[in-house]
Write a structure and sequence with these properties.
This protein is mostly helical. The chain has 4 domains: 160 residues, 3-Layer(aba) Sandwich (Rossmann fold), CATH 3.40.50.620; 99 residues, Alpha-Beta Complex (Glutamyl-tRNA Synthetase, domain 3), CATH 3.90.800; 47 residues; 104 residues, Arc Repressor Mutant, subunit A, CATH 1.10.10. The chain is 46% helix and 10% strand. It is built from 18 helices and 12 strands. The strands form 5 sheets. A 3-stranded parallel beta sheet has the order 1-2-3. Strands 4-5-8 form a 3-stranded antiparallel beta sheet. A two-stranded antiparallel ribbon has the order 6-7. Strand 9, helix 6 and strand 10 form a beta-alpha-beta unit. Helix 1 crosses helix 9, helix 11 packs across helix 12 and helix 14 crosses helix 16. The longest helix is centred in the N-terminal third of the chain and has 17 residues. The protein is elongated. The structure holds glutamic acid (GLU). The site of glutamic acid has 7 residues, from loops.
Length: 468
């Protein structure tokens, strides 16, 4: 027996940016296709002409590209499949699974109210035929919901059954001849050979409706996977109030695409306690049945943690390139060299690129450093300059500029003078970093490099830090 190749799809409506929930859906579709050696398709659902914009399409494509979710094949634009949608509606009409409905808006309102009071969904008086159809009048084509019940098997939600009397006869083609989402999505998924529909659980009930349409058309129903929504950190439905929503917001907050992929993987899927996944591990481990049933909560501490773990294993050159937009300093050869040397420490300790930029700031200051206010306090001590001028020739004498050698310089100085590190460490740190966040002093010295250390110390010795 041969099993059909898995084909998944992400089908965003281009009415805004790529939302974090959509990105997670796309990621799961992408992972499942990669895991099974299948295909991941992208369909832009642009049938709502008023709400769809080319800017939104572009924003979605940009978001997908940044996140590294490469789709297979050409992008399908739903609006170009109009003729196929109309043909499917016609075939449902021909087979008696659909009918022309001539009710106007007022009649519909009234019939809907009556149906509600009677405890079932709306049924058009035109559904059973037998009435002469008025020539030249506007009509919609409605699906004739079958008797009985509809059951779907969902990889997350399990088996779900609906009583068909609760489904109204939905419109397939509007009075202007345009197809509705419910029809278009079925026809396109069928024509694209989609085997697995993975999407947000706001579409769960649509799966019931859509399986009726598949059955009426005699087409195989795809496998369903409906993902629970993403909630804000307060447990409430994600909304503008929570701030970050777009994938690009997360990029601008300094998360790497790899880190965000891992975070989104874990935001709604787990099989054990493992948190950190490379793409290869994620592809291997991902299963539809591991998707959680309850809504996920955004958790920036966890995102920071996962992202920081990815920094540790990332290539320095990649980190450096991605860090650049977060730096406010203009880079020259000296600053780039300092960043390269310090990357070993930066990548081990940063949560995201913003954090990394903050931790790298001391490396990128222009000489002479502006050291003012609280940052200058250690330099105002009586013995501050005495220590700096005693240390300067010791640094000049170091030929092998390594953390260990520099640590020895500091340790020897403390021992010879019989003083604690703090006595000279604080003015030294102030002179070298101007109060910016910085690691251990021997690391600061090592990463700044000999010339820069000597230059910054000379500047500090020449400056006055008195308060005026
Ligand atoms: N276009 C729909 C949306 O953006 C998704 C349709 C689907 O996945 O079936 O909500």
């Amino acid at each position: 027996m041969t099993t059909a190749k898995v084909v998944t799809r992400f089908a965003p409506s281009p009415t805004g940016y790529l939302h974090i929930g959509g990105a997670r859906t796309a990621l799961y579709c992408w992972l499942y296709a990669r895991k099974t050696g299948g295909e991941f398709r992208l369909r832009v659902e642009d049938t709502d002409r008023e709400r769809s914009t080319s800017e939104a399409t572009q924003a979605i494509l940009d978001g997908m590209e940044w996140l590294g979710l490469q789709h297979d094949g050409e992008i399908v634009y739903q609006s170009r499949n109009f003729a196929d949608h109309v043909a499917a509606a016609q075939s449902l009409l021909d087979s008696g699974h659909a009918y022309r409905c001539y009710c106007d808006a007022d009649q519909l309102d009234q019939l809907r109210n009556e149906a509600r009071e009677a405890g079932h969904a709306f049924r058009s008086p035109w559904r059973d035929g037998g009435k002469a159809e008025p020539a030249g009048e506007a009509f919609t084509i409605r699906f004739k919901v079958p008797e009985g019940s509809t059951t779907i098997a969902d990889h997350v939600q399990g088996e779900i059954t609906w009583d068909n009397k609760n489904f109204d006869d939905l419109v397939l083609l509007r009075a202007d001849g345009s197809p509705t989402y419910m029809l278009a999505v079925v026809v396109d998924d069928h024509n694209m050979d989609i085997t697995h529909v993975i999407r947000g659980d706001d579409h769960l009930i649509n799966a019931g409706r859509q399986s009726q349409i598949y059955n009426a058309l005699g087409w195989a129903v795809p496998e369903w996977t409906h993902l629970p929504l993403i909630h804000g950190s307060d447990g409430k439905k994600l909304s503008k109030r929570h701030g970050a929503q777009a994938v690009t917001d997360f990029r601008d907050m300094g998360y790497s695409a790899e880190g965000l992929r891992n975070y989104l993987l874990k935001l709604g899927w787990s099989v054990d306690d493992q948190e950190v996944y490379s793409d290869a591990e994620a592809t291997k481990a991902f299963t539809l049945d591991g998707i959680n049933k309850s809504p996920a909560r955004l958790d920036f501490d966890k995102m920071d943690h996962i992202n920081s773990e990815h920094f540790k294993t990332a290539k320095d050159s990649v980190l450096l390139a991605e860090l650049r937009p977060f730096l406010w300093a203009e880079l020259d050869a000296g600053k780039i060299a300092r960043l390269e040397t310090a990357m070993v420490s930066l990548k081990a300790r940063s949560k995201n690129y913003k954090d990394m930029a903050n931790k790298a700031a001391y490396l990128l200051l222009d000489r002479p450093l502006e050291i003012t206010g609280k940052a200058a306090k250690p330099l105002r001590r009586d013995d501050a300059k005495e220590h700096l001028s005693a240390l300067l020739p010791r640094f000049e004498a170091v030929t092998n500029w390594t953390g260990t050698a520099l640590h020895s310089v500091l340790a020897n100085y403390a021992e010879e003078k019989d003083i604690g590190f703090g006595k000279f460490g604080q003015p030294l740190r102030a002179a070298l970093t101007a109060g910016n966040p910085s690691p251990d002093l021997s690391d600061v010295l090592e990463y700044l490099g000999k010339d820069e250390v000597i230059g910054r110390l000379q500047d500090a010795l020449a400056a006055s830090y008195s308060v005026d």
